[in-house]
Write a structure and sequence with these properties.
- The protein has one domain.
- The chain is built from 6 helices and 9 strands; from the N terminus they run H-E-E-E-E-E-E-H-H-E-H-H-H-E-E.
- The strands form 2 sheets. Strands 6-5-4-3-2-7 form a 6-stranded antiparallel β-sheet, with helices on one face. It has a 3-stranded antiparallel β-sheet with strand order 1-8-9, with helices on one face.
- Helix 2 runs antiparallel to helix 3, helix 2 crosses helix 5 and helix 4 packs across helix 5.
- It is elongated.
- About 25% of the residues are buried.
């Protein structure tokens, strides 16, 4: 049953992602503050951009020519511009998850049932925390290990969602089993008929979720374009400044073509 609920959560973002052929991976970590952008390999800092224009490697500011300076500024601006897009996608994904949960369990257990109400409440709390996490002035960590401030869309986020799901299932397992039993009885005890009934139910939910995911698909496409542009700037910066050429933050590909040649 946990798998069923988790699938609903994944469907919220998966249905949107299916419309995009963009694959994004972060090989490095980021810490973004008002005054700096720091780049990490796991827990180890590699370099940072200060005040969106000074490049500091191993604690030492580098002397840059005008072209290098412009690349640093453009790269920093691109990363900062992507943050509100990440926030918007996270919030949209949570909204879609709440919708999917409500559609699923209202159909199984009736409107305002304990499972969907509790899960929706918990996910609404997560949404509020995401809003606070991405509020102006807060340090933001992305894809980092060993960070006191949680990587909100990484392991911390995944663990929290899993905990929400597990708690809700444990508290409502009786109601869920009764609902599934009623569905089996409606199928006359025929397990094939029951399976077909559940498959149709899943298809109906998926269709409704796909319709609601259109807005997130647009966000995903836009974010993909943003990351392709940032990746291109990163590659230009690595070619122009040998001191940072061994570090790779982003790997992004569209369709079959990977748009990065280097790895950490």
């Amino acid at each position: 049953m946990k798998t069923l609920i988790t699938s609903v959560l994944l469907l919220a973002t998966g249905s949107a992602a299916a419309h995009s052929s963009c694959n994004l991976e972060l090989d490095g970590g980021l810490r973004i503050t008002e005054n700096s952008i720091e780049f990490y390999e796991a827990t180890q800092p590699t370099y940072k951009i200060v005040e969106d224009k000074y490049l500091v490697v191993s604690g030492q500011p580098l002397r840059l020519n005008e072209a290098q300076q412009e690349l640093v500024a453009d790269y920093a601006a691109g990363i900062r511009a992507a943050v509100p897009e990440v926030r918007a996608m996270a919030l949209t994904g949570i909204d879609l998850a709440i919708t999917g949960i409500t559609l699923t369990f209202d159909n199984l257990l009736g409107e305002k049932n304990q499972v969907s109400t509790q899960l929706a409440t918990e996910l609404t709390n997560v949404k509020s925390d995401v809003n606070r996490y991405f509020s102006a002035g807060n340090p933001i960590s992305i894809n980092r290990d060993g960070e006191d401030i949680p990587d909100f869309l990484g392991k911390h986020f995944e663990t929290r969602i899993e905990r929400v799901v597990e708690t809700s299932v444990q508290n409502s397992i009786g109601s869920l089993m009764l609902a599934m039993g009623k569905e089996a009885l409606l199928a006359g005890g025929d397990m094939e008929a029951f399976e077909e009934r559940m498959n149709k139910f899943g298809e109906q939910i998926e269709q409704q979720m796909n319709e609601r995911a259109a807005g997130m698909a647009v966000q995903s496409e836009k974010f993909c374009d943003t990351m392709v542009d940032i990746n291109a700037l990163e590659e230009q910066l690595k070619r122009a400044v040998p001191a940072v050429e061994s570090f790779n933050l982003i790997r992004v590909s569209t369709g079959e073509v990977e748009i990065v040649q280097h790895s950490i």
